[in-house]
């Protein structure tokens, strides 16, 4: 029997190998520029390499090479020896920009060394970074993690919030709600809706500050608790579970879904938003990489397939199941189900 050869098998091409074996050079260049606050330094106008070196206390020769690399990556422009922020850097990498992503990048920066321990984690089956470090034990890292989640949620919310029609709904439970960003934005968009964010104490403390700063303390409350054991209450009409299934096993996710379903009134909505794979688990690539990132940073961390989550919801008695992918570059997909 003649089988048609797989296209990738027909002509192996080493380009991806060459590219990926050095991809961390580019990552580290961006992470370092962000850490040095290079883009803030250039926010008010172009500077020479000597001025950047003097202003950021760097070595002049190294800085010249570094700035050229940043320009090569498209983050800076260079004109007659003067370096300026390119539009993408001005929009996302300058701290006074409303779309600043610096804390998200800083979180990746902090995980750079953790990724260097991938082999250890593969051998031991243990995360290379204890999750408690950034979920309360280390106050500075916890604050950094919460600020990173907040920045990321502000971006994702532009697609997630319009997707959810919560008109007429009054009581939301935001399980593992992190900075409370979605609760703040959803209760703003749907007057009459109040949300309770259930969070670990160290994270909740920072979230309280963010909710107060947003002027939303009258409609978003924070409750310290462990979502594995906390009472979800009753009479809810929305439960949001965003970005937490990737920390949990199938059994734990099923348990969380069952408890969410139990606390919902009839007609109540469960919304699960996360990075998910397609069935089979090997695509999209970002989701598989994200699974490794979670394996490195949480004991049960990984990535699930959205089709599996829909099945678990069905098993828990939820109906009207649907999945909506958020537009690129957001890797999230949203799975929803209604309690009959
Ligand atoms: C990736 S964050 C997502 C935060 C937020 N829902 C969002 O999407 O922006 C996962 C959150 O789950 C919280 N979390 C993890 N384990 C928890 C537990 N056992 N009980 C309560 N919250 C927990 C973490 O503190 C963190 O804020």
Q: What shape does the CA trace take?
A: globular
Structural class by SSE content: alpha/beta
Tell me what portion of residues adopts beta-strand conformation.
Answer: 15-25%
Main pleated-sheet profile = 8 strands, mixed
CATH topology of the largest domain: Rossmann fold
Radius of gyration: 22 Å
Oligomer state equals single chain
The number of distinct structural domains comes to 2
Give the ordered list of helices and strands. Answer: HHHHEHHEEHHHHHEHEHEEHEHEHEE
* Terminal-residue CA separation: 51 Å
Total helices: the number is 16
Determine the mean pLDDT. 96
Give the % helix: 40-55%
Q: What ligand species are in this complex? A: S-adenosylmethionine
Under the CATH scheme, which class of the largest domain? Alpha Beta
Describe this entry's structure for a reader:
With 340 residues, the chain is of the alpha/beta class. The protein has two domains: 19-95, Orthogonal Bundle (Arc Repressor Mutant, subunit A), CATH 1.10.10.10; 115-338, 3-Layer(aba) Sandwich (Rossmann fold), CATH 3.40.50. 47% of the residues lie in helices and 19% in strands. It has 16 helices and eleven strands. It has helices spanning 7-10, 15-21, 23-35, 38-41, 49-56, 60-72, 87-92, 102-110, 112-115, 118-124, 139-163, 181-189, 201-213, 250-263, 285-297, 306-315; strands at 47-48, 76-79, 82-85, 171-175, 194-199, 220-224, 236-242, 264-277, 304-305, 319-325, 332-338. Strands 4, 5, 6, 7, 8, 9, 10 and 11 form an eight-stranded mixed β-sheet that branches. It has a three-stranded antiparallel β-sheet with strand order 1-3-2. The longest helix is centred in the middle third of the chain and has 25 residues, at 139-163. The model has no long low-confidence stretch (mean pLDDT 96). The structure holds S-adenosylmethionine. S-adenosylmethionine binds next to helix 11 and strand 5.
